[in-house]
Design a protein that fits this description.
The complex is a heterodimer of chains A (373) and B (367). Chain A has 373 residues and is mainly α. Chain A has one domain: Amino acid/polyamine transporter I. In chain A, 77% of the residues lie in helices and 0% in strands. Chain A has 18 helices and no strands. In chain A, helix 5 runs antiparallel to helix 6 and helix 6 runs antiparallel to helix 16. Chain A is globular, with a radius of gyration of 21 Å. Chain A starts with a helix and ends with a helix. Chain B has 367 residues and is of the alpha/beta class. Chain B has 2 domains: 191 residues, no CATH class; 149 residues, Nutrient germinant receptor protein C, domain 3 (GMP Synthetase, Chain A, domain 3), CATH 3.30.300. Helix content of chain B is 34%, strand content 32%. Chain B is built from 11 helices and 14 strands. In chain B, helix 8 packs across helix 9. The longest helix of chain B is centred in the last third of the chain and has 30 residues. The chains are: A mainly alpha (373), B alpha/beta (367). At the A-B interface, helix 7 and helix 14 of A face helix 1 and helix 7 of B. Chain A: Belongs to the amino acid-polyamine-organocation (APC) superfamily. Spore germination protein (SGP) (TC 2.A.3.9) family. Chain A: This is Spore germination protein (Amino acid permease). Chain A: It is found in: Membrane.
Chain lengths: 373, 367
């Protein structure tokens, strides 16, 4: 009897040790949101909304905060994750299928992020570098991080917020050439354009639904909600500053001609000791995307572990990473990558802003019915 | 147990090392000493289809002195040119340190410069801070004939840079040019250089309509007026003035406030430019009385003079149908229904009124 109790206690203790404290949600949310989307979101939204695109950034931020609010609403009562949620609402068979959908979503998003970053390196720094070599190096690194468990992933995401922070200071350089009258006249867009731009903007905000997987691993779950909101708002703030500077620095058609407007901003930076600062920028960006891929793949792995606790994680990781490696090699050139990204974006939008609300509604209806009987 | 774990770690490390080892050979190494950095490139009109390109590459001698090697080729494309030149140079040519792009007048007028700038824009290795300039006459000659003891690219870049910093010309570089080029309203400008006593000299401004050069501003006086009226500058250089009574002087401008008002009167818009100029008197000839007595009269005379010259400059710009002063941009930011096409049609005929206020604040350390 007592022995059994001891075992349970040590298990609990172990679980407690694996948990991370609330403030880390800030880093997890913010770092997974700021990824490759931050490279080119200006272009996507200015294409639709013109010089008023900054409104879409703010509106997108509000929507994301709303989504996070609902996520907490759905999860905090029982402290469960999306797999448990599925099981409860949809039943075990259907729930499993939809959980697997999340798994595939996480993997494909991670793959898209990684391939976009590799393209960045190939275009900006090493035109001759082969895709397989750089992706092999990154994939080994990612495997190393994920095999360390959730706490290491969290550590990487903290690092990926702090280390690239100095890139924000570099925005002072384009500011010298900025002309803020580009923003005038304010409000020259229709409602439809605003909605279209907000839709385009949400891609850069996605990734926060990994919260659905790591929520049970947070110490004192419900109280972490404010950190999640602060994290999402911080992302909004950064994107807002970047879009303001971009619109002021570029003229509208010039912005649309740039594939990576954020790195275009760095091209005006020049120090006596570094002629071309984008090199440093590209290197630093590896931190920005590393935690994205790690967290997303960790989440997919977590789905597997929750569905089949006995499965071998090494085997899973090897298969997933080889798939990603294959995808990296198969996608050559900008058109392929853009198509793949587009596809992942639509999927992400569908999951975050269509499927999840439906799931909540279903859960709500079920709760009511349960209370009635 | 411990030894076993140690051994497995070692084998992991060894395996990783073996995988990563061949990666070192994947990239072509570029050693900075074994590259030829193009610092300046000049494009000239050869004929309808071909351009004549000239590049300057500095090389450093053991006694710390610099020499410039120059190469010239006639090709159709700008990148093709480098490909051809690589057959002449001892080391591979790279564009990572390109500081100046020069265009001959004929090229800028007939062909336009956007074809060349396409390759510039695509190339991630060319910094947006590089300067562009038009050369009065032949651009290649400026590189070929200039004294080659200095780094030619750097010295031209420095020449342009300090003149921008002290307000003698409006801000200009590669980024600025394409920025204005891509605007629906407003036209770009570039500095105009020439070769004077085998040295590059800043002569004036070349004014563009989209990618093609339409006119130039050459005299010091016109350049000063141009910077006074340009939206980009808040500080500016000095201006010489001569009154009818024979009083001559030099005004160093310390502060400019500019207000551009676009009024839609009937079908035709009209522009009202208000200039508020503060300056210090630095030199004056032909005045017998104490300086402070003549200041109010001088202010008035200078205002008249500047208004007259500004009016003349704007007439020139309208005749060329170029809008480097950004009046259409001023119209756009206050008009929600701005029509860029209609404006550009009307621009040569609109009325521009200049009102100038001059305040002479100080006049040196003697009375």
């Amino acid at each position: 009897m007592s022995k059994q109790g001891e075992v349970a206690l040590t298990n609990l203790q172990k679980q407690q040790d694996e948990k991370v404290s609330g403030i880390h949600v800030f880093f997890l949310i913010h770092s997974v949101q700021s990824g490759v989307g931050g490279l080119s979101f200006q272009r996507e939204i200015t294409e639709v909304a013109g010089h008023d695109s900054w409104m879409a950034v703010l509106l997108g931020g509000v929507l994301v905060n709303l989504a996070i609010f609902f996520m907490y609403l759905a999860l905090k009562k029982r402290g469960e994750d999306v797999v448990a949620l599925h099981q409860r609402i949809l039943g075990s068979r259907l729930g499993m299928i939809f959980s697997l959908m999340f798994m595939v979503y996480f993997i494909s998003t991670g793959a898209a992020v990684l391939r976009t970053y590799i393209e960045l390196v190939q275009v900006w720094v090493f035109p001759e570098i082969s895709t397989w070599s750089i992706s092999l190096v990154l994939i080994l690194l990612i495997y190393y991080v994920i095999s360390g468990g959730f706490q290491v992933v969290v550590g990487i995401s903290v690092l990926s917020v702090i280390l690239p922070f100095y890139l924000l200071l570099l925005l002072v350089f384009p500011l010298q050439h900025a002309d803020f009258t580009n923003l005038l006249p304010i409000g020259q867009l229709s409602f439809k354009e605003l909605m279209g731009a907000t839709k385009a903007m949400t891609f850069s905000y996605l990734g926060f639904c990994t919260l659905l997987m790591y929520y049970p691993l947070l110490k004192d779950g419900p109280r972490t909600q404010k950190f999640a909101h602060i994290g999402a708002s911080y992302t909004t703030l950064i994107y807002f500053v970047v879009i303001l500077i971009s619109v002021a620095y570029y003229s509208e058609k010039q912005l649309l001609a740039n594939v990576w407007p954020t790195f275009g901003l760095f091209k005006i930076v020049r120090f006596p000791f570094v002629e071309r600062f984008e090199y440093v920028g590209v290197a630093t960006w590896s931190f920005v995307i590393l935690d994205n891929v790690c967290l997303l793949l960790w989440a997919s792995h977590r789905v597997l572990k929750r569905l089949w606790p006995q499965s071998r994680s090494i085997l899973f990781m090897v298969i997933v990473l080889s798939l990603i490696f294959l995808e990296n090699i198969l996608l050559t050139g900008r058109r392929d990558i853009a198509t793949f990204n587009q596809w992942v974006t639509y999927w992400g939008l569908g999951i975050n802003f269509l499927y999840l609300p439906l799931l909540y509604l279903l859960g709500l209806a079920k709760g009511w019915r349960g209370r009635a009987t | 147990m411990k030894g076993q774990r140690m051994r497995s770690y070692l084998s992991y490390m060894l395996a990783t090392g073996l995988i990563l080892l061949p990666l070192g050979g994947c990239l072509q190494t570029k050693v900075i000493d074994n590259l030829d950095y193009i610092t300046a490139v000049a494009y000239d009109w050869e004929n309808e289809k071909y351009i004549r390109g000239t590049v300057a590459v500095p090389f450093y001698l053991p006694d710390r002195s610099v020499k410039n090697a120059t190469y010239q080729e006639v090709t159709q494309l700008s990148k093709e040119m480098r490909e051809k030149m690589n057959k002449l140079t001892p080391n591979p040519l790279v564009s990572g340190k390109l500081e100046v792009g020069l265009f001959g007048t004929e090229m800028a007028r007939k062909k336009g410069i956007m074809d060349v700038l396409d390759s510039w824009q695509r190339d991630p290795f060319i910094g947006r801070r590089a300067y562009l300039a038009v050369v009065d006459g032949n651009a290649g000659d400026l590189l070929l004939k200039a004294i080659k003891k200095k780094e030619i690219g750097e010295s031209i870049a420095k020449l342009i840079q300090h003149n921008i910093e002290h307000g003698r010309i409006p801000d200009t570089n590669f980024h600025h040019f394409i920025n204005v080029y891509y605007r629906e309203n407003g036209d770009p400008w570039l500095p105009l250089l020439t070769l004077e006593q085998r040295k590059p000299m800043l002569k004036g401004m070349a004014l563009f309509k989209k990618g093609k050069m339409k006119g130039k501003i050459e005299t010091i006086q016109e350049m000063a007026i141009f910077t006074f009226m340009h939206w980009d500058r808040t500080e500016s250089t000095g201006v010489k003035f001569v009154t009818k009574k024979g009083v001559m002087g030099f005004l160093r401008v310390t502060e400019i406030h500019r207000k551009i008002k676009v009024v839609q009167s009937g079908n035709m818009p009209s522009v009202h430019v208000k200039l508020d100029i503060h300056g210090n008197l630095e030199e004056i000839h032909g005045v017998r009385q104490a300086t402070d007595k003549v200041i109010p009269e001088l202010e008035h005379l200078v205002e008249k003079e500047l208004q007259y010259q500004g009016q003349k400059l704007i007439q020139k710009l309208q005749r060329w149908n170029v809008d480097p002063l950004g009046y259409s941009e001023a119209a756009r930011i206050h008009d929600r229904h701005f029509d860029a096409k209609a404006w550009s049609k009307q621009y040569p005929h609109i009325k521009v009124k200049i009102t100038c206020r001059v305040h002479i604040d100080e006049y040196g350390i003697v009375d």
